[in-house]
Amino acid sequence: MKRLALALVLVSRVAHADDPDALYTCKAAAPTTKIQVNFKPDVSLAELATWVLGFSCKNIVFSSDVAKHATKVTVISPTPMTPKQAMQLFVDSVEATGLVVVQKPDTIIIKLGPHMPANCPDVAAATTVAPPPASDVDDELDKALDAGIKKLDDTHVQITRSIVDSVLANPMAVAKGARVVPAIKDGKPSGFKLYAIRPRSVWARIGLANGDTLVAINGFDLTSADRALEVYTKLREAKSLAVDIERRGKPLTLNIVIK
Asked: Fewest CB within a 10 Å sphere: which of 53, 73, 91, 196?
């Protein structure tokens, strides 16, 4: 369950690589804001960058050589942090891999460290087996969704635990299934609005429709990306999700059970 909640948070922040109009979600956090998050083991630097982008609104640039090196790290963060502490955690996490972080007023640059040879390949890059084409990955995800999601009625869905793992393992493919942008109501953040939902996407399969606004999960509101991360930490022991949405101006709850 916690993985599905994290996937929702990540997808709300991931831009479509082939979509020039895609948006990253960010809201600069006040200095006194408390940020708490649980990272999965071997989190990628791209996911860490998306996280820090969410509360700093800084541009993040990766040197082209960075992709040739190991880009995953395990981060354990048990206590709430200020934005300054969270930024330092990001810098420490990146530099623990041997890379260097250069901070400028509006931009963070990540590049090779002085002792990292430019031609040192990542373990994944050194293998003789090429990664599957993106279309094959999408097909595999579609097959997993077909087998792992059972729609009981318009508001009740049953999902296998393996499908949650598939969704989390391939957030970019899931991100292509819909456009997720912040929603504003009466001048205030009210959740995340969904557009351009593809019929066979995970969004459609769990009962979401174009124009729906994700308002809350298990009673916890989703008013910002930071708040969504807080909700994830509170839901890590949950065994079901009650996803509150607003559809055509009316409230509706989608109930998701993982087995």
From this structure: 196
- Per-residue pLDDT of 211-226, as tens digits, reads 999 999 888 888 877 7
Three-state secondary structure of 88-117: HHHHHHHHCCCCEEEECCCEEEEECCCCCC
Instruction: Output the DSSP codes for 27-57.
Output: -PPPTT--B---PPTTEEHHHHHHHHHHHH-
Burial class (CB in 10 A: 0-12, 13-18, 19+), 163: buried
What span, in angstroms and rounded, lies between the C-alpha atoms of 32 and 54? 16
Question: Does 215 lie in the same domain as 142?
Answer: yes
Reported as a single tens digit per residue, the pLDDT across 66-111 is 766 657 888 888 888 898 998 998 988 888 888 888 988 889 998 8
- What's the rounded Cα separation, in Å, for the pair 37 and 227? 10
Integer Cα distance of 77 and 86 in angstroms? 9
CATH code for the domain in which residue 17 is found: 3.55.50.30
Gap between the Cα atoms of 121 and 124, Å rounded: 8
Range of the domain at 144: 134-258
**One domain, residues 157 and 73:** no
Query: What's CA 114's distance to the chain center, in Å?
Result: 31
Query: Of 70, 102, 126, which closes a domain?
Result: 126
- Which residue has 């009673």 as its token pair? 219
DSSP-assigned beta bridge partners for residue 216: 221, 244
- Same-domain pairing of 13 and 68: yes
Q: Number of folded domains in the chain? A: 2
Contacts of 117 (CB under 8 A, 6+ apart): none
Domain end among 91, 126, 161: 126
